[in-house]
Amino acid sequence: MASLTGRIVLTAARRNIQYTPVRFCKMMNDPLEHATGIEKRELLAKAAGNENPFDMKVFKRGPGTKESPNLIPSAFDARLVGCICEEEQTYVNWMWLYQGHPKRCECGHWFKLVEKAPV
Fold it and tell me: What distance lies between CA 117 and its chain's CA centroid?
């Protein structure tokens, strides 16, 4: 009786082992085929070579004078901008920039919103 039970368990185990690799061999389709909306726009932009489609990466500050302000692109009339005034500062100074109105941060750097066509 014990040998019969052992054979049944062994047969069932072999059956599972034979079918297991088939389940894991199926490849996922291309993520672009399943994406919709904003995710699809982002994947298409990255495929076209634009690594920053939503302008979310950090901008390095330039001279930031009144005559030569730091230019911040935006497709809208206003944009929220954060300035880390000192290198070792642990907080961000946030301010709203509006189209056509350059603004000075508390640290003295000037920022100006420039128009960028929406993608």
Answer: 20
Q: Which two structure tokens, joined as six digits, stand for 101? A: 């109105």
Phi, psi of 76 (to 5 degrees): -120, 175
Rounded Cα distance, 19 and 26, in Å: 12
Report field, pTM of the whole predicted structure over 0.70: no
Q: Give the 3-state secondary structure percentages of the chain, helix then strand then coil, rounded to 5.
A: 35, 20, 45
pLDDT of residue 78: 94
Contacts of 52 (CB under 8 A, 6+ apart): none
Residues ≥6 apart with Cβ < 8 Å to 35:
43
C-alpha angle with apex 104: 100 to 107, nearest 5 degrees?
160
> How does DSSP assign 71-113, residue by residue?
EEEESSSEEEEEE--STT-SS-EEEEEETTB-EE-TTS-EEEE
